[in-house]
Design brief:
Number of strands: 5
Helix content: 55-70%
Oligomer: single chain
Strand content: 5-15%
Distance between the termini: 76 Å
Strand order of the largest sheet: 2-1-3-5-4
Number of helices: 21
Shape: globular
Radius of gyration: 24 Å
Length: 461
């Protein structure tokens, strides 16, 4: 019965999502706007992330435009590709076509996909290439062909260009070699093949390595700051919250059914386990001792979902899992469609109104320059005012620490003598050399951020 309603249910929810995107008053989140803005300046690297997502956004927007609805549909298209590769993953794992197809549809219903299909993030293509890489590894587990080693290297390299968390794949691969006697023999018998894999990875990522070298390894600096191990504060509650969120994102009934399934553990299931648990453990430790975002363990959910789906053998739990996940999807999409006033949506609410008020309330007859000290707001204003002829700058005094990409590509020159609107603090521009006066103006409501920024007109004398 469940198999018959999965595809119709998915179609209904997909149409509902399209409707929600067209009716909602929500806006792009600052990080999403940032990736869009990066795509306007194609490079081999950016301050905090590798370049692949921005490359794709550039190609995508050249074809389908940069409207809110168009951009928000990008994650759905990527998840369809991921689901197709989940289908192939199940086939390669020994499932029949019917069960494999059901599995890829059930994947599209899990809460993690429901939520992240509304978010443009670097996780999208990391998950796509993680799934493709895992497929090649499963193939290598049964048949070692040169083609599979090359494809594994290509997909893994593109994974690194999507998000540096692809390093988890390498970590899990070495754990698999250490713990699994059968795969260790495959590795030792095919050193040339695996060597070819890592040569392909290196060739693909070397432009990004060169970019980082030319920019003083600034991405490594950001990653180190993000880890923040200098401020260790052990909190077991944070760890528990992280685990509960992971269970919720997969679907609690899928987790329950998979963990207590009566299927015997086979070699493929062990691979899925090894390509999920170490990641969750690493991020769990980070959550306990410092902090961790829920999506930092995103690649683990692909492998863990595959493992749980293969192991679940309780028809009742499958149906309950479907009902739970469908309900979560339905409620989320309806809330977005009606722009439900919840705190969880504050960060994407009112950004467009704020941008238009900044533009229209300027005392300048023709606002040409806006200086913004906050990275997310800088990105959001760029997107919301993309049809206006405005120059955007980020305050940056030469020699100071670089804390975001816009201080590299859009710094406010110390010799500027054109009037501008400043969103930030007077201290942000105290390095300017030309004389100016500042007029504080009323700041529009900033529901989308906890950090309230003042607005000034800066006029040069």
């Amino acid at each position: 019965m469940l198999n018959k309603i999965l595809l119709p249910s998915f179609i209904v929810l997909f149409l509902l999502k399209i409707g929600a995107l067209n009716f909602t008053t929500f806006n792009l989140f600052g990080d999403e706007a940032q990736y869009w803005l990066w795509s306007k300046d194609i490079d081999f690297g950016y301050y905090s992330k590798p370049p692949f997502l921005s490359w794709i956004i550039r190609v995508y927007t050249e074809i389908l435009g940069s409207s809110f609805v168009s951009l928000k549909l990008l994650p759905s298209f990527v998840y369809l590709l991921i689901a197709w590769n989940i289908y192939n993953l199940f086939l390669n794992s020994g499932l029949n076509k019917k069960d494999s197809f059901s599995g890829c549809l059930i994947f599209l219903f899990i809460p993690a996909v429901s939520f992240s299909s509304f978010i443009i993030s670097t996780d999208l293509f990391l998950l796509l290439f993680w799934t493709l890489s895992l497929n090649e590894l499963i193939k290598i587990n049964s048949e070692q062909g040169i083609k599979n080693f090359i494809l594994l290297g290509i997909f893994l390299g593109l994974g690194f260009l999507s998000k540096y968390a692809a390093i988890y794949f390498v970590i899990c691969l070495f754990i698999l070699i250490l713990l699994d006697k059968r795969f260790r023999k495959i590795f030792l018998d095919n050193l040339l093949g695996f060597g070819l894999t890592f040569v392909c990875v290196f060739i693909i990522i070397v432009p990004n390595i060169i970019w980082n070298f030319n920019n003083d390894w600034i991405t490594l600096q950001h990653t180190s700051d993000n880890a923040n191990f200098a401020n260790i504060e052990i909190d077991l509650i944070r760890g528990l919250e992280f685990l509960l969120i992971q269970i919720l994102m997969l679907g609690p009934f899928l987790v329950l059914g998979g963990l207590f399934g009566f299927n015997k553990w086979n070699n493929i299931q062990k691979i899925f386990l090894i390509f999920s648990m170490p990641i969750i453990l690493i991020v769990l430790i980070e959550a306990i001792i410092v902090r961790a975002n829920a999506n930092w363990a995103a690649p683990a959910l692909i492998s863990l979902f595959a493992l749980l789906y293969i192991r679940i053998d309780n028809s009742f739990l499958k149906i309950v899992n479907y009902i739970f996940n469908f309900t979560v999807c339905l409620v989320l999409f309806v809330m977005i469609g009606i722009s439900y006033p919840s705190k969880i949506f504050d960060r994407v609410s009112g950004i467009n109104d704020y941008a238009l008020k900044i533009y229209n309330n300027s005392s300048n007859s023709a606002l040409k320059n806006i200086v913004v000290s906050d990275r997310l707001l800088f990105s959001s204003l760029n997107f919301e005012l993309r049809d206006k002829d405005i120059n955007f700058y980020m305050p940056y005094k030469e020699g100071d620490k670089i804390t975001n990409h816009f201080k590299i590509v859009s710094p406010l020159n110390k010799n500027i003598n054109e009037n501008f609107t400043l969103i930030g603090s007077p201290a942000d521009i105290n390095y300017l050399e030309n004389e100016y006066k500042m007029i504080k103006i009323n700041s529009p409501d900033q529901k989308f951020t906890k950090r309230k920024l003042d607005v000034y007109e800066v006029v040069f004398e």
